[in-house]
Amino acid sequence: MNDTFLRACRGEEVEYTPVWLMRQAGRYLPEYQAVRSNVDFLTLCKNPKLAADVTLQPVDILGVDAAILFSDILIPVEAMGMRLEFSEKEGPVLSEPVRSKSAVEKLTIPDVEEDMPFVFDTIRILIKELENKVPLIGFAGAPFTLATYMIEGGTSKNFLHTKKLMFQYNQVFHYLMEKLTDSVISYLSAQIKAGAQAIQIFDTWAGILAPLDYKKFAFPYVRKAISELKKEGVPIIYFANNCAGILGELKKVGDDVLGIDWRIDISDAIKKLGKKIVVQGNLDPCALFLPKEKLEERVKEILWKGEAAKGHIFNLGHGILPQTPPENVAAMVEAVHTYGRKK
Amino acid sequence: MNDTFLRACRGEEVEYTPVWLMRQAGRYLPEYQAVRSNVDFLTLCKNPKLAADVTLQPVDILGVDAAILFSDILIPVEAMGMRLEFSEKEGPVLSEPVRSKSAVEKLTIPDVEEDMPFVFDTIRILIKELENKVPLIGFAGAPFTLATYMIEGGTSKNFLHTKKLMFQYNQVFHYLMEKLTDSVISYLSAQIKAGAQAIQIFDTWAGILAPLDYKKFAFPYVRKAISELKKEGVPIIYFANNCAGILGELKKVGDDVLGIDWRIDISDAIKKLGKKIVVQGNLDPCALFLPKEKLEERVKEILWKGEAAKGHIFNLGHGILPQTPPENVAAMVEAVHTYGRKK
C-alpha cells in the first residue's frame, strides 16, 4: 500500500508530500455527476455500493494519496433523531432546530452500527477495494460545528441562534455539546473498527467564534473527543476552518495533524503551532481556477513553506468547489507529486 | 465638543476610552424603524434631512462618542454607473455584474458633488446639528470590497467570480481596482471638505483572500487611498474584517486606526501590530445578547487589553445585528464609559 499519507500524519519520513482534497469525491467530477444523475445526495450517502464507488473515483482519476469516505457530517445528526433534508438551493435543512433543554433531551446517542449500518458497510467495502492502493480516512463533524447546524436548522450567516443559546442558556448548550461529543466518539470509534486508517474531524464553523468563546464552548469537547479516539491508534486530523485567530488554542487540542484554511500563510501557522503538529493544507480552493503555471507556483510555495513543519500533507484550505475544472485538479495533484519530492 | 474620539484616533491622552458602533444607526433602533416605515432604504440614504436624523439617533439615545454618516458603501458604485437595488432578502443587488474589460471601461469616475449631492448635504446638515456634541465620521467601502460587490453582483459565499477575474484576467481586475481607488479618494476627500472629521474605510471582504492575494490585489489600492487621504489631515480608520491572517500586511497600510473583527483576541492583534497604530474594536456583535453582567465582563476585558495599544477606540468587531436589544447596547456604551475611565 502507498502509506505515504499515514507516515506523513505521524511525522515520519516520506519520499514526497502526500496530497488529498477535501470533498475530492463530488460534484466537480463528471464521473460523480453520472452517479448522482440517478440518485439524490442522501440516498447516495446511504447506499454502500455507490458511496464506495464515488469514494474511489478521485483515487483512480487523480491519483491522490488517500481516500475519504463519501458521506455527510449530518448523517449522525439524523441518527440522533433530527429530520434531515438536502435542498439544492439552501443545502442541509434540519426542520426542527434544537433550542431548548427539552429538545436536547429528546436527542439520542445513536447505536451507531444499528442506526447507520450503511456507513460501516461502505467502509468495509472500501477496505477490500482499496487494498494495495491508499489509506481510507473516516470522518465526522466536530461537536461545535454539528451543534451550529442543529441549533440554526442549517447553515447561517451570523450564527445568532447558536450564540444566543451559548450566551443565554449555556447549560443547555453544554448539555447538547456533551451529547454530541459522545456521539462523535462512538461514531468515529466504529469507523476505525470497521477499517478507517485515519480520521478527520471537520470543524467548519470553529472560526465564527471569538477566541474566548472557542476556548470555552468548543475546544474542550473536541479535545475530549480527540483524547478518547487517540486510544484507537490511528492518526487524527482536526480541520479548523478560519483558524488564524485561534491557533494558540489549536496547538493544545491533541491531534496528530491540524488542517488549516487558506486565510493564513502556512508559514505563520507553522510558526505559531511549533514543531509538534503535522500541518495539512492550505491552497485556496479558488486557486484551482488559476492558469496552470500560476497554480504550480502556488503549489510550490506551499510545499516549500510546509517543509518547516513536523510534517506536511498537501490539501486545499476548504472543500473543492463544484465549478472546479477537473483537469486543474489533476494538474495540482501532479504538481504536488513532482515538486513535493524530497531530495 | 466631546473630541475624545478624535484624540484617541491620534493616540493622544484621553479621559476615557471612546466608543461608537458600526451600523449604530439602524434597524435595531425603534426610532430608526419609525423613519424607515415611511421610506425605503435607498430613499433614506438619499434624503439629507432624514439621513441626518437617523445619523443623530444613536448619539442622542446611546451617548456614543462619534456619529457616523448614514449611507451605504454602494452609493458611489451606483454613481459609477451601475444599477443598484436593495432586496429585503438578498441585500444589495447590482444587476449587471462587472466581469469584462468592456464593463470596466463603461464605469465612470463620479463627479462626486454632482452625482451624490445628498451625501455632502447630509454631512453639512450634520456638522451644524452636531456642533458641541461629537465628531462626524465619513466613510466609504475599500476598493477591494467594492470590487467584490461589482463583480459578484451582490454578496457571495465563495467569491468565485471575484477570484476568477483576479486569477484569469488580472489586468482587468487591476484596471477595475484603479478606477475604484480614484473614486474612493475623490469621494472621501469631498466628505472631508464637507465637514467629516474622521473617515473610516470598510473592507468587509478583506478576509476572504489568502494573504498573498490580499497583498497583491487589495492592499496596494487601499494603501494608496489612505496615503492620498492623509493629506486632508483627518484621522483615517481602516476596518479589515476577518483580519487575523493578514495583520502582518495591515501593519503597513498607513492608517491612523485599524478596526479589527472579533475573531482574534485584541491582545494578539496589538502584539502583532505594535505600538504605532491605534486599535478599534472588537466585541462580537452577538455578545450584545449576553446577560448584562457577562456583557460587562467582556467589555472590561477588551478595555483592559486595549490599554496595551497606542490608543484604543471601543467598537464591535462587525456591524450591530438588527435583532439586538437596544437596552443592551445602552448598557454596553455605559459599561465602556464607566470601566474605560482612566485613573
Provide a descriptive summary of the structure in words.
In chain A, 56% of the residues are buried. Chain A is globular. Chain A has helices spanning 4-9, 30-36, 41-45, 48-62, 75-79, 101-106, 112-115, 117-130, 143-152, 160-168, 170-194, 211-229, 247-250, 266-273, 292-306, 326-339; strands at residues 67-68, 84-87, 91-94, 136-141, 198-203, 236-240, 257-260, 278-283, 312-316. Chain A is built from 16 helices and 9 strands. Chain A starts with a helix and ends with a helix. In chain A, the strands form 2 sheets. In chain A, strands 1-4-5-6-7-8-9 form a 7-stranded parallel β-sheet. The first copy, chain A, has a single domain, classed as TIM Barrel (Alpha-Beta Barrel). Chain A is an alpha/beta fold. The interface between A and B is large, with 37 and 37 residues.
